[in-house]
Amino acid sequence: MTAPRIALVAGQWGQNIGNAFFNLGGRHALEQVFGPGSVGFFQDQPNYRTLHNKHRGNPGTHAELIADLDIDALVLQGPVLNAWFRKSWEQAFAILRDRGVRIILHSAAFFKFRPDEFAAVRDFVSEFPPALISTRDSRSCAVLRDWLPGVPIYDGIDAGFFLPDCLQPFELGQNSDYIVCNFDRYPEPDILPAVPGDPAAVTIAGRGYLLRVPQRLNRMAKASKIQAYLGDLTDRRRLPASLDGLRILRPEHRFFPHMTHKIYRHPGAIVSDEPWSYATVYAHSGMTLSDRVHACVATLAYGNPAMLFTPSPRAALFERLGLAQIRDRPVRLCPDRLSAAKAAQIDWMRAHV
Questions:
Q1: Which of 38, 181, 187, 260 is most exposed, with minimal Cβ within 10 Å?
Q2: Of the candidates 73, 68, 60, 98, which has an alpha carbon nearest to the alpha carbon of residue 9?
Q3: What is the bridge-based pairing of β-strands 132-135 and 102-110?
Q4: What's the domain range around 195?
Q5: Domain holding 224: CATH number?
Q6: Beta strands in the chain (DSSP E)
Q7: Are residues 288 and 242 in the same domain?
Q8: Whether residue 280 is found in the same domain as residue 132
């Protein structure tokens, strides 16, 4: 068996299972370009770990084994265009460049979309320009094109949308209908019956409901991540196990969360360090309400409706597929549009590798 020649950076699933969705989907997409068995996973950098100051870089004792790999290309995905990009990758990139290994950014994006981040990333990619780039949102693409006119750049989609192409979940038995409420930083909204005809109502299982976000908790969540988790400690609500007889599942995306009191606190909890169970949950969700971008990506990719509750600029990836209203109401993804976008991205990659 031939060893893989393309190293796809992956990992940190325990602190954000959404990473697994675009890691797995990305490998599938890349193998359509480079061939079956050509793409292998390799660990992400350790300065991404929970409760570590990412700007401090990798620990000095870290073995930079990725720089020793006998590979043709190193591929990074996701919001890697961040203020600590250089701290994470400068040592490895310098070694790989000297050996002629190409750096590819696939389904990449900025993290905060702030001026200080733009300045840091521009400085780094000017010194270490990737061989080619596909982005997951149009804003990231436009910024990079201005900086790197000599680098092939494609306005692509998030690799998590390829997840159904490589991960077929279990089927469920009869009478297994449910909705998903997946909230990490921001508070889960109260779901209240709506008066017929109310324009603010959201339809769930054929009935209208109002989604009321607890404002005090929401203000704390917007202030900072620390305040968000402290605010959660003061949330005395007993969240329901069902909605008019429809079960509510509550997957937690952090197997190693910042504050473990959130784990299994409310009914319908699902917590795991592997992505397979989550794929089954989102593949059969009657509706997903979430503050996690990739909970919505997975739900939409499997053909189900989702609504997002976060001001994060990383939600720009939904605009690329005509889902700009995802914060205002539940949306569905047109399957033909998704199929065309995936095929176009793979065709572009094939033409430029």
A1: 260
A2: 73
A3: parallel
A4: 166-334
A5: 3.40.50
A6: 6-10, 39-43, 73-81, 102-110, 132-135, 153-155, 178-182, 190-193, 202-204, 207-212, 242-243, 246-252, 269-271, 288-290, 306-308
A7: yes
A8: no
Is the pLDDT at 1 greater than 70? The verdict is: no
127 and 94 share a domain? Answer: yes
pLDDT for residue 259: 76
Q: Which residues contact 195 (CB under 8 A, 6 or more apart)?
A: 201, 208
- Separation of alpha carbons 257 and 270, rounded Å: 13
Q: Is residue 184 part of a domain?
A: yes
pLDDT single digits (tens) 214-270 = 999 999 999 998 899 889 889 989 999 999 999 999 999 999 887 788 889 999 999
In this structure, of 4-13, 224-233, 288-297, the range with the lowest mean pLDDT score is 224-233
Please tell me whether residue 229 adopts helix, strand or coil conformation: helix
Structure token pair of residue 149: 């006119």
Residue 152, pLDDT > 70, answer: yes
Tell me what the mean pLDDT of segment 35-56 comes to: 89
Task: State the total domains in the chain.
Answer: 2
Domain co-membership, 142 together with 245: no
| Amino acid identity at 297 | V
